[in-house]
Amino acid sequence: MSTNKDIATEPKRKSSALNDPQVRGYIFQTLLIAFLVWFGWVIFQNTLHNMESRGITTGFDFLQNPAGFEILMSLIPYSSNDTYGRTFVVGLLNTVLVAGLGIFFATILGFIIGIARLSKNWLVAKVASVYVETLRNIPLLLQIFFWYFAVLQPLPSPRQSIDFASAVFANNRGLYVPAPIAGDGLGAVIVIFFLGIIGSIFMVKWARKRQEATGQQFPVLYASLGLIIGLPIITYFILGAPLTWEMPELKGFNFKGGVRVIPELIALLLALTTYTASFIAEIVRAGIQSVAHGQTEAAAALGIRRSVALRLIIIPQAMRVVIPPLTSQYLNLAKNSSLATAIGYPDIVSVFMGTTLNQTGQAVEIVAMTMGVYLVISLTLSFFMNWYNKSMALKER
Amino acid sequence: MKKRMSVLTGALVATAVSATAAMAGTLDDVKARGELLCGVSTGLPGFSLPDDKGNWTGLDVDTCRAIAAAVLGDAKKVKFTPLTAKERFTALQSGEIDVLSRNTTWTHTRDTSLGVNFTGVNYYDGQGFMVQKALGVKSALELDGASVCIQAGTTTELNLADYFKLNGMKFSPVVYDTSDQTVSGFASGRCDILTSDQSQLYALRSKLDDPSKAEVLPEVISKEPLGPLVRQGDDAWFNIVKWTLFAQINAEELGVTSANVDTMLKSENPNVQRLLGTSGDAGAKLGLGANWAYEAIKQVGNYGEMFDRNVGPKTPLQISRGLNALWTKGGLQYAPPLR
Fold first, then answer.
1. What b-and-e string marks burial along A175-197, b requiring 16 or more CB atoms within 10 Å of the CB?
2. Residue A118 sits in the same domain as residue A20
3. What kind of fold does domain B127-222 have according to CATH?
4. Minimal Cα–Cα distance from A163 to chain B, Å?
5. Is pTM, for the whole model, over 0.80?
6. In this complex, which of A153, A256, A362 lies closest to B188 when CB atoms are compared?
7. What is the pLDDT of residues A204-236, one digit of tens each?
């Protein structure tokens, strides 16, 4: 009996620390981490050693060397005199551009198609179904080729461009639109535009408070439209329209002036948008259908209009189901943008992991950097979507 | 736990060591495998292209077949791996192939920093331009502002930028992954110009729906010596690949062809005797049989035969010998003496 009592009162003195599950857990975890670090180190050293013994140059010095090749499209000033490091930035920005635009348009199109699939109008619902079932079941690479080789390349040559009001031109070299040139006072218009946005935010908060206090509604939508769009337009004309347009003109082989959108970007964007939108549509449909029908009926019983019920009751609840899979689709889109290399859009894979890798031959460094880029893009996207998800999640009181 | 770790460590060290060991003796590997692993292009008429039965033909292909004949005694014992311009060096570095024979330009950077060695030149080339005839361009100096289709990962990209910069002209490059995509971009009018090595331009032009609508401009803007390459650090294998091509060039100079090689075995000419192994020990010095060059010439032919069969005037490419004629005929093909 006495021994039993000892164990019960002073268990730590009797058993060794090694038998404590928590201590043991720490020991094994430390060992595992140490092993992984050592394993990574061995691989790293082994690679370095083998490359050196075969006379392959290693290190990141090449980033300072002049690149010597041109790039089709760049968001920052770039010429062949710039360094390989700059080609990395050019490729990175092009990837971020197409991924960002793709996510933006795919979300809008996806929501429209998803809601259309639930429409009571038979034709609208069927058209949306056919869209989803066709586009999500064809490989993305084929869709990119389709847009690029079958739709955009057969457009006429620059000299026979399709011309919209002599301002916008479409040909097999791209889409040319007039470029805006800022005059004096345009800054003021932009400042007023942003002031309008800030003012609207405060107005929405004020209107909500007033409604909670008095039950009176305020026409928030029209008032904020007036603030954000109306006010800048009035300022713009008061200041004497300080914005001129540079028209694209045919000179030599190609158009000069204006803003040019290259067909590679258009094809890639169309393919990524329509493909990802078909998945987003299904996610949106599932989200809306996951909200119990009783919620709609309850809203109707309270006399809430259908559009208001959709905005205030259905969609907020649907979003909780929609956001997590939507994040996956955004990540897929960002990674799928690497298929750009198939049609020559100068994204990071085409420029940096393609040409730069070939000119320098430093595959290990370049592939590691490129993988790092996609990892950072994906983790950033995940981070923002998780944050948004948390702010939309059910708050239990 | 500890025991398992030490086993793992052992295994790791063993792989590291064996990986290094495998690099040393490419000749032994090829003999043991009974097959030569040769990296070629994904499809370039005249240089490496599979026919409708899957047999590879072309100048680069024959270069590999000659090596297989010299080493294994059978020109058919080659496994061809099609590689894009981007993949080629990695495939050679990683040991996926024994020799890369893929119209690859010999440059300083490639020779010094990629861990590879160029073994010689099997085709002297230069970069040129192909334009749509409808543009009415007669010289490369009229190309300011043009869109240019290029294949990714080639020296062409750099030469092009240099040439336009030197002449104060601007261009916008459209870079594709394979030569098929490049041609399709040019054919559809996405670009005004397609630029590549001159030999390839003729080959690519023959792939167009209507080859007569395109023309190759006279300017040659760069030196492009193309040749096979091997991994650095295996000198015995380097010598074999190098001297197989030299043997074929020497054979042409000595008048030894695949048709007359058997009668040439009785030749009194000491140069021919050394080449065909009836005297001397040229083969043994390379670690090969005495009949190494005989097999290569018998089964593949001398350099001139190889050239005429694949790219010469009687082929669709219709390329004249030009720079690739023997030095005795005003060209650059010159092999060190076999003695």
1. bbbbeeeeeeebeebeebbeebe
2. no
3. D-Maltodextrin-Binding Protein; domain 2 (3.40.190)
4. 18
5. no
6. A153
7. 899 888 888 888 878 888 888 888 888 888 888
